[in-house]
Amino acid sequence: MQGIILAAGMGKRLKNITKNKTKCMVEVNGISLIERMLKILDRKDLSRIVIVTGYQEETLKEYIVSLTIHTPIIFVENPIYDKTNNIYSLSLTATFLEEEDTLLLESDLIFDETVIDLILCDPRENLALVDRFESWMDGTCMLLDENDCIVDMVAKKNLHFVNADQYYKTVNIYKFSRHFSKYTYVPFLKAYAMAMGNNEYYESVIRLIAMLDTKELQARRLNGQRWYEIDDIQDLDIAESLFTDNTEEQYKKITARYGGFWRYPKLVDYCYLVNPYFPTEHMLEEIRANSDRLIMQYPSGARVIRLLAGKLFGISDKKIIVGNGAAELIREMMQETNGKIGFVTPTFEEYINCCKQEQRVIMDTRKMDFSYSGQDIQDYFEQKHIQMLVLINPDNPSGNYIDSREIYELIHWCKKKKICLILDESFSDFSDEAESCIADSYLELYDEFYVIKSISKSYGVPGCRLGILAGRNSEKLDQIQRKLPIWNINSYAEFFLQIIEKYKEDYRLSLDRLRKSREIFMKELEKLPYMKVYPSQANYVMCELSDGVKSRKLASFLLENNILIKVLNEKLNNQKEMIRLAVRTDEENMHLIELLEKFGGEYIE
């Protein structure tokens, strides 16, 4: 068997990266695509590797010759690479196709060696390697029957995304027998090129062959093996995080993205903290049904958005403003004082990062085993002369919770001390008490008491980027509002606020489910001998690891199994191995427990 690699293209979408080199020479984590590919093929006992060159031909040839590849390499030039597509490049190898069985690859791929092993070890002679269609994929797709026969080839311009779960994307790796190439594929290839021209794609020929009753060509489905197609800078960036030899380095690269994890469709996110039971499918259906008009029309201005938010929380629109996520409001609110600001740490660092070092007065709860009360806060800051106090309740990452009675007392204490109190209750809906301070009964207690809440977290819509700031001091709220863009909230977020009233009972039920899931999850975690579980009233659990277990090693193990968790070592800086786990659905949580048990059995003596 021989290998044929098509590498004539210009890689225009990579712009300056391919200005002086071909796309297959682009590096992922220090190794070029073509080097990685050739070294894998070099281990497969191929008789030869035929490479079709074009753009930057001499540069590519010199580079490949410099690599230590033992399999004989033959170069075939496509001199009109800038005027043709891959159907012409492949037609230049027709003689080679007719001489041997062939493994055909495009040069802009990166993949695990197991991908090649899968197609080579399959006894079927003629195969197209395919994978389940995902949102990041671009190009020709297939419809398959239960026998892996190709029912249809669907060009990307004809894809119907409502049927995405039925599609399989071609990986652009094929296995052809010599007989198939000589008597079927090459004749069709030549005829199609003659009829349609050389600016076509060889997949079109496969589509024609697939329509024949002979069913000579079948599909080989991947089952979790890694691969990626590099077309642009975004693809390159994602490939950098997927294809690392070091899982700990991969963890760093993925977490450094701070979201966008839909690009990793198999990844289960235990790092970011949202409600796994809301929105309901019915609510999502309503949003999808209105998606066209939402994406094509402007959202309302701030006045309307404030009305919607006030209606949701049952307060006047004068007492509430809406931000593009709570982070936008945190930044503006923290700039309201140049004085000293009290923080209870460890906590959500967005607040601390918004003020100067000399402003920070820190109540460190590490020596209190992360457990503290409202009275503890009063006692600590009594003589600290702070102008502002920030409290997150339940706290992040500890999950420590101060009940409503203590919050009431803390508001009065701050009023007496003339301290501006900012209460972040982004996770309070998950508490057993479920008492919100976004109510007149609390807001009217003190004109320098403010509540910030991330709607994204409790309502499970982080993509909407919704946060609110509430308080009775309408003058200050208006002042902050004037600093925000008139359209800081997009149409999807506005629509969510518009329809949420209809789903309030579903939301309440989702919180009940979350509390039950948290209870079950924590009990299962407590059974693990190497894990100390801290009490939590949030949708996450903080854990301390013992028996020599390293948090990064555990995180790497879980990432290998497509689960992402939060390592807290740097955040807590307490010489202990700490992690935070989100509470997800019962099924997902039990899968995680099984993996944690497996880790304990394999890595703890």
Descriptors:
605 residues, alpha/beta, Spore Coat Polysaccharide Biosynthesis Protein SpsA, Chain A, Aspartate Aminotransferase, domain 1, Aspartate Aminotransferase, domain 2, 3 domains, 9-stranded mixed beta sheet, 7-stranded mixed beta sheet, elongated
The number of domains is 3
Measured distance between first and last alpha carbons: 47 Å
CATH topology of the largest domain: Spore Coat Polysaccharide Biosynthesis Protein SpsA, Chain A
Q: What is the class of the largest domain in the CATH system? A: Alpha Beta
CATH superfamily of the largest domain: Spore Coat Polysaccharide Biosynthesis Protein SpsA, Chain A
CATH architecture descriptor text of the largest domain: Alpha-Beta Complex
The number of helical segments is 24
In percent, how helical is the residue content? 25-40%
Based on helices, strands and strand pairing, what is the structural class? Answer: alpha/beta
Multimeric status of the protein: single chain
**Structural Rg:** 29 Å
Query: What would the average pLDDT be, to the nearest integer?
Result: 95
Shape: elongated
Task: Describe the sheet with the most strands.
Answer: 9 strands, mixed
User: Strand-residue fraction?
Assistant: 15-25%
| Unreliably modeled segments | none
Count of individual beta strands: 26
